[in-house]
Design a protein that fits this description.
The chain has helices spanning 4-24, 30-41, 47-54, 58-70, 92-112, 118-134, 144-147; strands spanning 74-78, 86-90, 152-156, 159-163. It is mostly helical. The longest helix is centred in the N-terminal third of the chain and has 21 residues, at 4-24.
């Protein structure tokens, strides 16, 4: 028996850690990348919309958005249609940061899959997409966002250390 599930988990953990180390070099964490990508894909989306897309309560999104705002990578603007809501937008610095991440992601992907031919890569991607759809995973959203108590991560080249705050008292 080959234990494909274990191999998939092993490779996923390896790839995730390696990617986290790559983007730490440019001052990003994986959750920050996910949120920046979602805001870039839909500029002006509300914090509530982002929370719904991630499948988490809005207070968890605030914990992740606040540091991005403080770093100057996103900005919150009052909605012109509903003054109770804030729209999220990337700043020019946020756009630059996301472009740097994209270059890291391409390098990571090329390195990670270097042992496969183009045909093998395409076949693997198709099979993984089929499995993801079978299990109802939302395309482009890491399932960890649904269970993650958003971590406060300190990054230094080659390391990612996260302190996960308690989510006690929050409604899921």
């Amino acid at each position: 028996m080959r234990a494909a599930g274990f191999l998939l988990a092993q490779l996923g953990g390896f790839a995730g850690q390696h990617f986290a180390e790559r983007i730490a070099e440019i001052g990003l964490t994986p959750p920050e990348v996910g949120v920046l990508r979602m805001i870039a894909a839909e500029p002006g989306r509300s914090q509530r919309s982002l929370a719904e897309h991630l499948g988490v309560v809005p207070s968890r999104v605030v914990v992740l958005i606040d540091p991005l705002d403080q770093k100057g990578w996103i900005e919150r603007r009052r909605s012109s249609t509903d003054r109770r809501n804030h729209e999220l937008h990337l700043t020019p610095e946020g756009v630059k940061r996301l472009a740097r991440m994209a270059a890291q992601a391409v390098a990571h992907e090329n390195e990670f899959f270097s042992g496969l031919t183009d045909d093998e890569y395409a076949q693997l991607a198709d099979l993984l997409a089929k499995l993801a759809a079978t299990h109802g995973l939302t395309p482009g959203v890491h399932p960890g966002f649904r269970t993650l108590s958003f971590a406060v991560c300190q990054t230094a080249p080659g390391t990612v250390a996260c302190d996960v705050p308690s989510a006690a008292g929050e409604d899921e």
